[in-house]
Every structure is written in C-alpha cells, then in structure tokens.
Amino acid sequence: MIDIGRMINGSHPTLLEFYATWCPHCQKMMPIVEDLKELYAGSANIIQIEGEAHENLMNEFNVKSFPTWILYKDGQEVWRDSGEKPALELEDMIDRFV
Q1: What is the mean pLDDT of residues 59-81?
Q2: Beta 14-19 vs 68-73: how paired, if at all?
Q3: Radius of gyration of the chain, Cα coordinates, nearest whole angstrom
Q4: What HEC string does the chain produce?
Q5: What domains can you pick out in the chain, each with its CATH number?
Q6: pLDDT tens-digit series, residues 76-91
Q7: What is the pLDDT of residue 2?
Q8: Which residues of 15-32 are buried (b: 16+ CB within 10 A; e: fewer)?
C-alpha cells in the first residue's frame, strides 16, 4: 500500500482521486488519469483510491461522492472537487503547483 501521508507531505503535489468501480463517471475518467500519471511522472503524484475498498480513507478525507479529486501541496489541501473533469482542467490545476 502506498504511504499516502508521506506522499501528501512530500515535495511534489499529490492528486488523490477517490473512485468506485461501478461509477460510470469514474470509468470514463480512467484513461485520463492514466495519461496524467504518465504526463506528471517525477513531478506530481497521481493516486487513485478505490473508495469502497478503503472506507477508512473516505472518512479520513471526508469523501462523499465519486469521483472526488483532492490536490495537496506541501501537506496542505489546495483544491477539492468532484465529478467528471476535462483533462485540461486537471492539468491546469496540477500545473499551478508543480
């Protein structure tokens, strides 16, 4: 398991995506998230968390819907949103903190 706390508090921005396997919006976002992982390899952490398998993390991060996006920089939450997002919107948000 990835040490999410270490990633969030690390030097690179960290984008968490909480998703569910049954969620059609999450399924639609999967290829975009995979592209983001490649695009930001070495400069940002992109972490996908299957929410129903990790209810403790959903509670810890106060996640109420899927997909939920939370961006951290230097241990601080700097952005949060939910729902389907265009790739460019996610890239623009990450670019602000890289």
Answers
A1: 97
A2: antiparallel
A3: 12
A4: CCCHHHHHCCCCCEEEEEECCCCHHHHHHHHHHHHHHHHCCCCCEEEEEEHHHCHHHHHHCCCCCCCEEEEEECCEEEEEEECCCCHHHHHHHHHCCC
A5: 4-95 (3.40.30.10)
A6: 999 999 999 999 999 9
A7: 74
A8: bbbbbbeebeebeebeeb
8 to 28, 83, 86: CA distances (angstroms)? 25, 22, 23
pLDDT digits (tens, 9 = 90+) for 1-55: 578 999 999 999 999 999 999 999 999 999 999 999 999 999 999 999 999 999 9
- For residue 10, the tally of other CB atoms under 10 A from its CB is 15
pTM for the full predicted model? 0.95
The catalytic site residues sit at 23, 26
- Letter for the amino acid at 63? V
Is the CB of residue 46 less than 8 Å from the CB of residue 13?
no
End-to-end CA distance of the chain: 24
